[in-house]
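Forwarding these from the shared drive since the link keeps breaking.
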Amino acid sequence: MKLSANISKDWLLHHAAPLWSTVGVDDVNGGFYDAIGQDGAPLAVPKRCRTIARQIYSFALLSQLQPGGPWPRLVKSGCDFLVDRYRTRQGEYRNSVDIQGRPHDEGCFNYELAFVLLALAHAAHVLENRALEDLAFEIYDFLARGRAHPAGGYIEGTDQAYLLANPHMHLFEAALAWREISNAPCWKLMSDSLGTNCLDRMIDRENGTICEHYNRQWEPASFGVAPLVEPGHQFEWAWLLLRWAVLTGESSRVEPAVTRLYQFGMTFGVDPERGVAVAGLSPSGAVQDPSARLWAQAEWLKAALALAKAPWQLRRQSLEEDAARAWAGLSRYLETAIPGLWFDILKEDNSFVDEPARASSLYHIVGAIDALTEYADQAAAHAGQ
């Protein structure tokens, strides 16, 4: 199985990008649509904060993959809509607005804040607008002031019974993005704190897994069944920890943790018959949810490529084969009647759920294709030396 960036980049630049930058943009009410039906029509449903932020991120990456396109304009209009319609006070953003941009869900989740931080970082880089960092500082201060957990990480609110792994992962991603473009000490502090918290408290010492829910003592928590482990998040945490290791120059603790995360995901989380990463496992590796989400395939691809580039990695060829398998699995989700759309869920019977394409998945797809393109470019440059 060969690994090539040409097919993926062609699909993105000639089908997905034109569709989501036109049909996916709400020219009447502002912002971006949350989904497009398989018939090609956008859905008039509430616009989630995470979707607006993820589209800003996606268009920012597209500005690097396809210079000269409409991407900076879309990044700017997205940021304007995000701040105008979602920001409620310093550091706080509502979860969603209705189709006309009016308040819909006044909650303020850490997950949404993570993606606002990520969007602002990429927008600041593309637009060369450092003033956007002031908005990021507000979110950092809000989290540090009102949601910092004494045992590490962040709580969702005073009545939140569980610590959630997923928001911490994306806050880690956002802090790393800011650290890569800014010298502000808070981003180093935040990324180091979240990376260390992951290594010290979140990764199980016996099986190397990260669960989705923890109690206030950072012990895996369950809801009547074994604590849930998502293979896609095993891969995503591995990718992020490798980025952190590059920035810190310290891989002695990261290397074994990442290896265990990835190996668990590969050993128990990839269905050999369908060739895809499943949705949920128990900490012992038993399948709890055999469905397979699009995003997990993208994160599998990114983790395999990141590991293949690691200086201490000795099995580069087999990791490239893993990446090729991940792309083969991901590409199945992109085979739709209208090119540029996708399916999000593959069922256990190997058929897709027939539902609208969720805009939020573009973040995963663009990120995976960007990683694949970068890996291919570096390989070509190395071969030409």
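-- next protein --
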Amino acid sequence: MKNFHIKQICVLLLGSLGIASCSKNSFLDVKPSTSLVVPSSLEDFQALLDNDNFMNLTPVMGELASDNFYMPFADWQAIYEPHERNSYIWAKDIYEGKGGIEDWNVLYRQVFTSNAVLEGLEKSTPTASGRQQWNALKGSALFFRAYAFYNLAMVFALPYDAASAGKDMGIPLRLSANVNTPVQRAGLRETIDKILADLHEAGKLLPGTIPEYRNRPSQPAVAALLGRIYLSLRDYEKAALYADSCLRMHNKLIDYKAATAGLFPFSKSNDEVIFQSTFTRTSILLALASPGTIVDPPLLAAYKTGDLRPQLIFRKGWTGAVNPGGSYTQNIFQFTGLATDEVYLIRAECRARAGQPGPAMDDINKLLKNRFTSADFVPLTATDGPQALSIVLDERRKEMPFRGIRFTDLKRLNKEGYNIVVRRNLNGQVYELAPNDIRYAIPIPPDEINISGIPQNNR
């Protein structure tokens, strides 16, 4: 079999990493750039994982293929990258032969770094005083690998269905830093099982409190991510369990009444942020106030009087259109990480599905009290589970646009029979993405297919 393309992504990684954002005087600062850098100390491993220039990035193509926004024809035509332009219309040939796709390459770079740290730690013997740091580093590496695998699977694999997951294709599960080891695509069930196993192990090793640097994982981050994952698997009992576990450790919400509309209304380390990540940096289509990215009108119309979210998370651009706005990253790129508002919504949805409308509305009202003006906040009520579920899903849609989760929500909700059709109208030509369409598995980049020989998604 041909050598796996991830080898080309990773072979120079350790010699080319930038300075980590949370470390001073790290080995990355002082080792000569003329030779391959080999991490050897706990500080070295921390510096590798702290490099949020790539370790805290998530794929953007799923968001480009979902229904939070639309683009005028001229703006769509002007998109330079073929895979971004074609993701918007779910084209058969997304890449037009062009490789080097960051949604794939950067995430496998995260996997390689995580594996390098895990293998380096196994070769070291922690001292009694260094055991806690050693554990936290191992837990962090497991978390980052699981996060990368999960984000890859949500874009490049079909929606999870327990009945077919054994035969559906997942992603390549690279578990070694040896770039010469060939790896094929795992099944989707095997992919998910490995993600969950990594996270459960990480949860035993990571600190129980959220660190100052939100690009580092913690036990609340593990629980929040497990809640997100089990929700995407439609295992609502376990999603509720982990959402509740997270909220027992960290349940803070920020009051939008205290925020000021502007470019950056939120701090990147505000009380809601559990773990920081953002979209890969090649695309500016979802960046702050991108003029050609216009918020979906039905979504915009769903916000009620007194709801502070539209003026904070959206922004009216110079064209007069409403574009993506403030995010929890405190920069122009949108937040895709883990935050307590999402965790409340996960627990509320699971409670509604379990026929517990009262507790579901308790979660929703706690959130909305922090999103509305005091004069306009009216607690919501529901008489049964289905009514509560409808309210929760409406609030989920309004709370978290442009966070990289809508594509996965479309997958799972259509599996539940919601029959959501996504449409584009470009210069009079209508494109549609039907419920449960095979195009919900975005093709793997062509250079990966050509070099590794792994099977491509059907289109």
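The first strand starts at residue 57 and ends at 58. The CA atoms of residues 55 and 110 lie 5 Å apart.

- D.
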